[in-house]
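Changelog-linked ticket: 3-methyl-2-oxobutanoic acid example.
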Amino acid sequence: MQEQLIIFDTTLRDGEQSPGASMTKEEKVRIAWQLERMGVDVIEAGFPAASNGDFEAVRAVAESVKESVVCGLARAIESDIRRAGEALKNTGPARIHTFIATSPIHMKNKLRMSPQQVIDQAVKAINWASQYTDDIEFSPEDAGRSEIDFLCKILEKVIDAGAKTLNIPDTVGYTMPEQFGKLIHTLRERIPNSDKAVFSVHCHNDLGLAVANSLSAVINGARQIECTINGLGERAGNASLEEVVMAVRTRQDYFTCDTKIDTKHIVPASKLVSGITGFPVQPNKAIVGANAFAHESGIHQDGVLKHRETYEIMRAEDVGWGANKLLLGKHSGRNAFRSRLKELGIELESEEMLNNTFMRFKELADKKHEIFDEDLHALVSDEVLILQERYRLLSLTIHCETGEIPYARLVISDDGNEMQAESDGSGPVDATFRAIEKLLTSGTQLQLFSVNNITSGTDAQGEVTVRLQKSDRIVNGHGADTDIVVASAKAYLSALNKLHTKLERAHPQV
Ligand code: KIV
Ligand code: ZN
């Protein structure tokens, strides 16, 4: 009988700390639904003390998710913990995750606290959290660079105070797999009350070792892994959920535990997160990259055709490749459309939104024969943006001809006022962006422009991400359309709309 390995997904919290990956409340709820459908045990939905928006998003996720435990992050300070407690109050199963740094470098330079003060603060934090829930997780931040004696001491105290999960973070991605595994082993052995808590790990990928470190910890008794879809997260990201889950599932001969993840939902989750955040998945990314199951060399193809296991250790369909096959087409009615959205966890706020999205679905179905789940997500994202945003694209005319200078003319609405501009450029997208800038003179710098096809085929919608920077703010805008120049214009305007929204949001670790 295999033990259970708890999957704690932090895409909505640590994942959101990637520059430009911030998500709206509605986007978080959609991702949370997908995580719940996949069987994720704990969903860390955000950091409620960061801003009112984060508070509302955590609350909305906690109200809409029923099966998974929903978790809110809080520094080990009273106001943060109360905010997390309030966000999760009277919802489903809830966890408060509180943390304080324990490495000499963090205690001395960041916290300016003595080790004893850090212990006292951690114990107080557990006591505040226990006024809201019994399900309390504690993390000694930067554990990978903390002193083992001090770690043992503080962890023993927080278990006594009521922490049920001890999460050991390799905050800066510094440790080596063997070393990290040993750390978990030593902690479990030396802390007298260690059997009263579940050991968890949270590894960052600065040296590309987050998954290896997490798995090494599992071999040494960790029974919760914190991870994110597509490995999203602060800097180089966190351990990727899909890699951790599939490593353990594929090597059941090696591990003595397994997760309860329904792996067929992995690829749809990856696409959803990539679409919402605008962080494309590299083609050679394990499990969810477009080439992860593609055999290019003749010898490999021949081998796979003769006997699949010659070159394949997993089956593409088991992780959800091909799971989104044609579901709706241009003859589908409003009810089929509505119920598919419901199955995808999408609830539009009003009938008007549903009608508008359905109209745009019909337009898309005229251009594109097969509509996939990813197309529906893109349509809904667009609809939500259209209703909330200041700048909207009304029309775009492009002229491109071999030997001629490309030219764009566009009409946009600025809070309902129509404005138009034209420009030439080195290509149609360049001309379009120049025309927008003529109108809005945003003072931003373009940091990233990327185009991905949402589904396959030349009739697929192109999904464009535009990353803009203005002073110290970085935002990602997205747009989708079967015409990639139109998608680019929408993405550029969406980024400007985000810049326009004032964002005052604290970072948990600063
Ligand atoms: O990386 C880290 O240490 C964290 C903690 C808040 C767990 O994200
Ligand atoms: Zn982290």
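Closing comment: Example verified and attached. The radius of gyration is 24 Å. The longest strand covers residues 391-399.
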